Amino acid sequence: MEPRASGSLQECRDRECPLCRSAPAGRPLRSAFRVVPAALAFTLAGCGDAPESARSDGDAESSGAAVQSEPRRPAQRAETSNSSRGEASTAKAADVQTDEVRAVDLTGRLAQGGWARGEVRGGSVGTVELNGEPVPILDDGRFFIAFGRDDSLKAELTVRYADGETLTESFALAPTDFPESHLPARTTTALEADPAFERRRARELRKIREARATPGKHDGWTEDFIRPVAGEITSVFGAQRFYGDVARSPHSGTDFAGGIGDPVVAPASGTIVLAGPGYSYEGNLIILDHGLGLYSAFLHLSDLGVETGEEVERGQLIGRVGQSGRATGPHLHWGLWWNGVRFDPAMLLAQQ
Questions:
Q1: Would you place residue 96 in the very low, low, confident or very high pLDDT band (cuts 50, 70, 90)?
Q2: Cβ count within 10 A of residue 217
Q3: More confident residue, 255 or 53
Q4: How far is it, in rounded angstroms, from Cα 178 to Cα 346?
Q5: Whether 216 and 129 share a structural domain
Q6: Based on CB atoms within 10 Å of each CB, which residue in 62, 74, 157, 233 is the most buried?
Q7: Virtual CA dihedral for 63, 145, 171, 30, nearest 10 degrees?
Q8: Given 118, 147, 172, which residue is the final one in a domain?
Q9: How far apart are the first and last CA of the chain?
């Protein structure tokens, strides 16, 4: 679906491998990978960029039967059906009777810029990795993952059980078509060239990194996320921006139309890990920790309605729309960040 725009564009100036399974000799292992279909419909409907050195890291800043396999035999790749903009994927195969089933269930949007909630079954889990990177996981085997704008269309999930057995599965991501945004050419401002500004910006980025350094154990990531503002989407995640003929950083979040003072609410519960005024590009900034490495960032606010360390519930007022920082008009920029990956807030809202 094409992005929807409402009113004038508001801008902020911020920023194949087969399946394999292994089992210890003498112990049979049956394993499975399943992508649970999610009936998710969603609608997509501005932000500019900061110099690369000044960008904050992440803000200015998809019912199928299980796929079964015998150990040490070539695995059959699950057939998946994906459409653009992250339609839910479904893997299907004949059921096989097993003595022990070890499986991973995924539900979400398996697409570039998408996300999934997962659950590991069949025993105590030691670690989970996505494309070789560690994934935060709860003791009961539940976890959250996300996929970046430019991620490969093939992903690999590796589960290491506490008894040493390993389950490795590959799955496909649907490609996502990201729009382009063409803006007038711009040059570095005198402020950006000032060494004092560079030092100030370095301090701001350090505070942002520190706020996300230790993910909390909240369960906000399990909730159905709601829109943080009532306004329509004016600029989508991932839009490639050009200033004149120069390609700059893709849009790192989703922009919503709004007037100064319009309420901004928490899309899901969590802990406020940063509520700070006067950031160079982000303006008045709130970062909300939803647990398991998932964070929301809200930029350009006119008012901060919460303090660092405060626990908030889904739907609770946390601030108000503004035009602070580098913005050409009042709007809300909402960014999502998981484990170092920026992804599309509109896809997370798709579950509504």
A1: very low
A2: 10
A3: 255
A4: 13
A5: no
A6: 62
A7: -70
A8: 172
A9: 17
Question: Is there a contact between 47 and 326 (Cβ–Cβ < 8 Å)?
Answer: no
- The answer to whether residues 229 and 130 belong to one domain is no
The structure tokens 């998981």 sit at 338
Q: Which residues of 154-179 are buried (b: 16+ CB within 10 A; e: fewer)?
A: ebbbbbbbeeebbbbbbbbbbebebe
Structure tokens given for 96: 């096989």
Q: Are the C-beta atoms of 253 and 61 separated by less than 8 Å? A: yes
> Distance (Å, rounded) from C-alpha 332 to C-alpha 57?
18
DSSP state of 210: H
Where among 112, 142, 172 does a domain terminate?
172
Same domain, 108 and 66: yes
Provide the whole-model pTM: 0.74
Q: 325 is in which domain, residue-wise? A: 180-349
Query: Is the pLDDT higher at 195 or at 118?
Result: 118
Instruction: Judge whether residue 215 has pLDDT over 50.
Output: yes
What's the confidence (pLDDT) of residue 98? Answer: 39
Same domain, yes or no: 233 and 93? no
Rg, C-alpha atoms of the chain: 21
Domain count across the chain? 2
